[in-house]
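Q: Focus on the chain.
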Amino acid sequence: MSESRFLRLWIVWQVLLVGLVLLGPTYVKFAEPPWAIPAEHVLHVLGLASSAAASSILLTLCFLRTGGKLSSAAAFSIPAVMLGGLFLSLLVLRVSYSRMVLLVGSGLIVALLPAPLVGVRLGLRRSLALFVGILLAGGLMVALAATFVGSRIPQFSKGVVDSLLYTGYHVVDATSYSHYMAPHTAHGGGIEVFGDGYLVVNGDGDFYRLRWENGSDSLDIRPLGLRVPLNRGEFDADTEDAVRLRWFRVTDLLVKRRGERTRLLVPHHFWNRGSRCFVLRLSALELPAEEKDWAAAQAEWTTVYDTRPCLQVIDDRKGVPFDGRQGGGRLAQLDAERVLLTVGDHGFDGWTRREAYGQDVNADYGKTLVVNVAAGSAEIFTLGHRNPQGLHIDDGEAIWLTEHGPQGGDELNVLEGGRNYGWPFATYGTEYGQTTWPLLREADLRGEFEPPFYSWLPSIGISSLISVRGTLFREWRNDLLISSLNDESLWRLRIRRGRVASAERVEIGERIRDLVEGPDGRIILWTDTATIVSLRPARPDGAGAVAFGQCVGCHRPGDGASYGIGPPLTGVYGRRVASATGYRYSPALESLEGRWTEERLDAFLENPQNFAPGTTMEFQRIKDSEERRALIDHLKTLR
């Protein structure tokens, strides 16, 4: 074969293989193309494809540089080194990844990228024998990993990250536990207090038991082997490829102990194969009271209630065929046998779909329902909702509900039985890409619909909510904590005399799906990346961090470049006095020379005016030398 012809075939082979690495493993794992897979898996899939492309380019350059005499060992080592760099990056950056995608993709890259070169060097027969051996060895390794590691063991390196959140009333220790659970396809599920720990169900319907050991930071998470009857496989088999399977999901969890039994209530989508339509189903599982007895129990899920009517998957020019994002599906206990269930409109809003189910009293969608668990019946409690993502009953028996608006207009509502909350004819949001919502009616202006108690513009991707009942967060007691998805934050709302007196945003940096207040008072967050975040007030041994809380009103902690009223304090230790770029200092500080040392910081904190007469620093001097020392030690860590 001539060198030019071999080069052409080589380039075609590399391009095809890079495409195969990008498309093949994602279809194997997610049954979707790369652009439709869960967001948390995008980075490692792109990293895998980039490693294949980089390996291909390097192999081609080396092939040309050596005049076609590149050795087989070098041909295999180049993709191996590139993949090693990818794996190291995933570990350092703590990026979520799928073990199946990495194994399949890496095997394709290492085994097949150098294939044409090896084929020329070894001949057809030896090349076939080599690649068959590689495939058999790879299959054996995967089988051994599945046997000894087990599918229930987390697929990633566990990560624990501690950070401090500076809020108006508390300095908060935030501890994030990532990669403790197997990856899931669907965003959803919920978390509930159970005994001295917690139960979590993810969007795919898998249950986990969480417990902190003896009040420490050591978190134990165990899979329970329970699974919600979410028939996603049947839904997948009967619907078109355009349907987003990850929106077919579990939406919440309610745990109720009743004497010697524990009842699990779970709302989830269910596909009716006979009628080729879907519902939001409320399923129940009766188990022994203690979790240790569950493994030996013979229990089956029962159907409590199916929403009506059964909805068709519709593929038309508006919306998406199946909009499970708008499912709602939150639960709250009313009494021993009755629960309140929120049901989203699933896109049947009179605009995206012809039917406006939120205003149709003959349909369950766009409503909150009172479900009698024993009787398996339901009645409408309130109507006119779009996508109710949070539901909570406070100590005063007020029923709070959070729901998504369209573009803008996320809402906090107080529910009263029989009231109409307006959707889709009343909203403070707009149609996506437009400046108004096309179905607004004058009835909203005449007061025929209940207005929201509070609304967010722009929207925050509102999710769940609780009220703080314990004493651990003393200054937050009785405030509402509201979680968000797109905004990746908590919102603390203080309600006084029937209105929102104050609203504080606390940035978390994760899409928060659900939250709960634990038996010990800490706040636990369940996120879309299956990360558990524990929040509690900073401990006494964090005196420096607590003292730093006095500074954040004027000085922004962060990258060392952003500033508020005062200059940035990140990197202040060892920095030249009055040297932060872009900040206008007082002449008193600008006249000083040298750097911020421990001694200079101590003198400044003790009395700013004595240190730099005429400084504009408005600061209550820190008289206690131990407090100053703790604060300086903390400032030294801000890099």
Remarks:
- The domain at 228-393 is CATH 2.120.10.30 (Neuraminidase).
- The CA atoms of residues 206 and 227 lie 5 Å apart.
- The longest strand covers residues 261-272.
